[in-house]
Design goal:
The complex is a heterodimer of chains A (223) and B (355). Chain A contains 11 helices and no strands. Chain A has 223 residues and is mostly helical. Chain B is an alpha/beta fold and 355 residues long. Chain B is built from 13 helices and 14 strands. In chain B, strand 7, helix 7 and strand 8 form a beta-alpha-beta unit. The C terminus of chain B is likely disordered. The chains are: A mainly alpha (223), B alpha/beta (355). The interface between A and B is medium-sized, with 21 and 32 residues. Bound molecules: adenosine-5'-triphosphate (ATP) and magnesium ion (MG). Magnesium ion binds next to helix 2 of chain B. Chain B: GO terms for molecular function: ATP binding; ATP hydrolysis activity. Chain B: It comes from Paucilactobacillus nenjiangensis.
């Protein structure tokens, strides 16, 4: 082991904490961006023309915000958003500071994914619910989120995997985590075994998320 | 007004405009319609006539550009959202594509409307099972919609629509995706609900067979307007409008028969003492007898080329095309006597005297 990955062994503790930093960044930003993205995705679907709470103004504002945020490259977002980060977390570097750009980088993407998943819910079923006197809240909970659940799980998995990718880029603002280790140690010091090990750990994480997600989606799809 | 209490649905001067390519198109154009309690009211018309738009106005799924909607003496446009949702619960609706929730079982679908009522789980299950029994599907309670046939899916949709105890059931082409046999069984079910529960039904279709099978009243729609309406037996035995006539003659094969017969060259040489005539009569066999009587009473020779008996709202309607041969004066007398007896006649050959 020591012969195969000498540099990793030499910085064992730092490497393990990098793994936990990646997990922390991914989970924490996934939860917050998840809530935000889900809310915005639902709002986009219900306010769109022909939606159950059609509202052209709200729809076009939300739609533009999502488009705008999605067109900023993440590496630039890291810099552009730093005043907000400073205001919210009191610093612009480090693992916790990276959560702010991660959330803003991923939630618009997730919102679009949710929007598409919910648009796949049969409009006729929504109309049937309206005809039965269901309220908008009931239609969102009992029709959109339920009928769309397996698709929601699938797009959530895609989003979490993208998010793992973004956490590695956050290394540019000293976020820590596996990306940071791979670039600022493995790459900078020509310690290739660190880069490769970090890559393998990330691949394993992606694999676990994907497998769990597929299993969950299939489990709820028992019809 | 006592008149009012008879009416369940009352649409007054309803217009619905849609914008398409910057232009306004009138999907529904100044339609007034009354449906009485306990009626089965059919709305027939070709695709694009505005039928769906009109019935979607009845529960304000479609807000009209003009006009008022009154259901059970309650004007819907005056209601706030919560009140409107309550009003919708008394208006059940079923659809061409069933619109069942794929993630819920058959029973889960029927329970859906009950979720927003204050019922215990047991009460919900009891009520949904009862409804499934009513539509004959209790043994499918735990199946998913994807495991059912089209006719079964529509039965589930009917049970679901009944869960709110609606006063009226609106059916938008509910049998159009079904084969003829299944269509008949669904229509039988609707008829049963009408008789046993006193359920008022508004039914849209483009098939005459459906109207003739169960409706008491009918409205014919074309280009957003109701062009003809009344009792099914009357409208379909004495159609005033070309479109209505078209529906009748197509569905009874009269149209193709007339085309075939009038195109037959051997019939173009009818003599002065011959008439090619189309007869249409409602009701009993005595009128059929009336036709055969022609031969004896007026000494006419009747050669029947086409005959069809049809059931409309429980009444027999006959369609006959025949060549009558005999003395000219007797023929005239026979025809006028037939007309007095309520038989509609139309000469199909030259020398015609109209109706
Ligand atoms: N939401 C809409 N926006 C624009 N035009 C519409 C809309 N809904 C219906 N229309 C138009 O209104 C007209 C009537 O449509 P409607 O669906 O009521 O017809 P229909 O009689 O139910 O036809 P079908 O038998 O095909 O269901 C059509 O010309 C249709 O294109
Ligand atoms: Mg239609």
């Amino acid at each position: 082991m020591a012969a195969l990955i000498p540099n990793v062994i030499a910085m064992k503790e730092q490497f393990i904490s990098a793994i936990f930093e990646t997990i922390y960044m991914t989970l924490f930003s996934a939860v917050i961006a998840g809530v935000l993205g889900l809310a915005v995705g639902i709002l986009l679907v219900v306010t769109q023309p022909g939606g159950i709470l059609e509202d052209r103004v709200s729809y076009s504002i939300l739609d533009k915000i999502v488009n705008l945020l999605r067109s900023i490259p993440f590496i630039i977002l890291l810099a552009v958003i730093s005043p907000l980060t400073n205001f919210l977390v009191g610093t612009t570097v480090g693992t916790t500071a990276s959560l702010v750009p991660l959330i803003f980088g991923i939630f618009p993407f997730y919102a679009r994914q949710i929007q598409n998943a919910l648009l796949d819910v049969d409009r006729g079923v929504v109309e049937a619910a309206e005809s039965m006197g269901s309220s908008p809240a009931e239609i969102i909970w009992r029709i959109y989120l339920r009928e769309g659940l397996s698709d929601i799980i699938r797009v959530s998995i895609v989003t979490i995997i993208s998010l793992i990718g973004l956490t590695t880029m956050a290394g540019a603002i000293g976020s820590g985590g596996l990306g940071d280790v791979a670039i600022s140690i493995g790459y900078a010091r020509f310690e290739n075994d660190i880069t490769i090990t970090a890559t393998i750990v990330i691949l394993i994480m992606v694999f676990i998320v994907q497998t769990f997600g597929d299993w969950l989606a299939r489990r709820v799809e028992r019809y | 007004m006592s008149e009012d209490s008879k009416q369940l649905i009352s649409l007054r001067n309803i217009s619905v405009d849609f914008k398409r390519d910057g232009k306004d198109i009138a999907a529904v154009d100044d339609v007034s319609l009354d449906v009485n309690k306990g009626d089965i009211y059919g709305i027939i018309g070709y695709s694009g006539a505005g039928k769906s738009t009109l019935v979607r106005v009845m529960n304000l799924l479609q807000r009209p550009s003009k006009g008022t909607v009154t259901i059970d003496n309650q004007e819907l446009q005056g209601l706030n959202p919560q009140e409107l949702r309550n009003a919708r619960k008394s208006i059940g609706m079923i659809f061409q594509h069933f619109n069942l929730m794929k993630t819920r079982t058959v029973q889960g679908n029927v329970e859906y409307p009950l979720l927003s009522q204050k019922l215990s789980k047991n009460e919900r299950e009891g009520k949904s099972l009862e409804l499934l029994k009513l539509v004959g599907l209790e043994e499918y309670a735990t199946s998913y919609p994807s495991q059912l046939s089209g006719g079964q899916k529509q039965r589930v949709a009917i049970a679901r629509a009944l869960a709110n105890n609606p006063k009226v059931l609106i059916s938008d082409e509910a049998t159009s995706a079904l084969d003829p046999k299944t269509t008949t069984s669904i229509l039988e079910l609707l008829k049963k609900l009408n008789v046993e529960l006193g359920l008022t039904i508004v039914l849209i279709t483009h098939e005459m067979q459906v109207i003739k099978g169960i409706c008491h009243n009918v409205a014919v729609m074309e280009e957003g307007q109701i062009i003809e309406r009344g009792k099914v037996a009357e409208v379909f035995t004495n159609p005033q409008e070309t479109l209505t006539n078209d529906f009748v003659e197509t569905s009874t094969n009269v149209k193709s028969a007339i085309e075939r017969i009038t195109a037959d060259p051997s019939l173009s040489t009818l003599g002065d003492n011959q008439r090619l005539i189309y007869l249409n009569f409602i009701g009993n066999a005595s009128k059929e007898g009336l036709i055969s009587e022609l031969s004896q009473k007026y000494q006419l020779n009747v050669n029947i080329l086409f005959a069809n008996i049809d059931q409309v709202d429980g009444e027999n309607v006959g369609y006959t095309i025949a060549i009558i041969t005999g003395e000219e004066a007797s023929i005239e007398r026979a025809i006028s006597d037939l007309q007095t007896a309520g038989v509609r006649t139309r000469l199909l050959q030259a020398k015609q005297k109209g109706e």
